[in-house]
Amino acid sequence: MPASGRRDARFPVVDPATGETFDEAPDQRADELDAVIDRAGRAWPGWRADPAARTTALRAAADAVEAAGDDLARLLTREQGKPLAESHAEVARTAARLRYFADLPPGTRRITDGRPVHSEIRWRSLGPVAAIVPWNFPLQLAAAKFAPALAAGNTVVLKPSPFTPLATRLLGSVLATALPEDVLTVVTGREPLGARLASHPGIRHVTFTGSVPTGRAVAGAAAASLARVTLELGGNDAAVLLDDVEVDRIADRLFWAAFRNCGQVCMAVKRVYAPARLHAEVVEALAQRAKTVPVGPGLDPDTRLGPVNNAPQLTRVEQVTRQALADGARAAAGGHRLDGPGYFFAPTILTDVPPGSPVVTEEQFGPVLPVLPYRSVDEAVEAANGTAFGLGGSVWGTDLDRAEAVADRLECGTAWINHHAELSLAQPFAGAKHSGVGVAGGPWGLYGNLRPFVVHRPREDDEVGRR
Ligand code: NAD
Which of 50, 82, 242, 295 is the most exposed place for a label (fewest CB within 10 A)? Predict the structure, then answer.
């Protein structure tokens, strides 16, 4: 029990493969959060002062993450549900992100525009950064926030989702072996912890990944202290198949673009538009894969598709599927929960879906995919662009120039050709429309955690400057 005599509150963490509580995590109070943010503020001057020391520490942090890879991956699978191989891949990407940003120091730039002054842009860090992340990729998405924030010289307070707090807590302990004290602190708890963090006057940048409604709440909360806000929000990505597509050749890649991580990927393919002539063939190819993919607990080495992460999300997936079936859709595969314990939903391919059904217009975020026919490319592009989301999109076909011309018409942040959701660490990542505010990834992610500080100085021959 703490010195105050108060017993620490805790909340349960459920294994989605069984539906049973298997551990718990601290439910941190407002005064604990205040103390963490205060310490992050005091750690900032030391951390921002020495870029070379930061590079060394972040490289060491990447090594420490890799060394703890087995423990991190197992815990991640246990609380998130994804197959163990995918957890290992997530840990590897977490380390890779740290390494990428460790070696990306901000440059100083001198501007000379013919006037008798020169201006120098020096980049300054912001202060304590709040990083708030969802449950679908707890480690990787956390690293996408803390790696650039730390590399820029900020300190970080990281809050995972209460559905997946444990691997992030372990990650925090692993990082603590390489980073100075209080430079990165993990806080866990149920709401209103996130709201408190987003509105805290000690925070200078709130970098958030999650749903559109919560993103709105975070932007509103951060307005109180005028902290900078970066929002990476939901998506409803369309894949547009052109009439020269070879269905057999793309079916595997398209299936996994929709179903990886049980469809719980912000930039998963969430709608497929197929030419009417090929529609039945596309439905059949995807349904055949959905019916045969091994579904099971993530720790089982044969599993390719795990459970949905949590009970509310399972209910949501079930509701949009039922609504689509009630609207007249037909399940070419799946369409229902799986019997037995855990949050398993049968991989589902829907056809004959009315375009206005929520499974098309909203984000299903689960193992359910509608396949819609179209008659002209203009019609497909209009439908693809016809939601408030604008995260990603893809175009699939044999003629790459034609596919690229169609991809260029998609209103989104990233458009792929014959791929989906492949990202380089060096590229900017930004959603259009309601899918985001600000830019993450690559140098843009680093500069999103910095402010320009400009020094104007007269040239050497200035009449006032020299004696
Ligand atoms: P969510 O918005 O419910 O929660 C995200 C985080 O915000 C969690 O840590 C949660 O505890 C916290 N939170 C909840 N209420 C809050 C509040 N009032 N103030 C501050 N924080 C609060 O999202 P989720 O269900 O955890 O994740 C799924 C969503 O995330 C999907 O919409 C998905 O598309 C999106 N997502 C986007 C990206 C991207 O890069 N664009 C990546 C992954 C997931």
Answer: 50
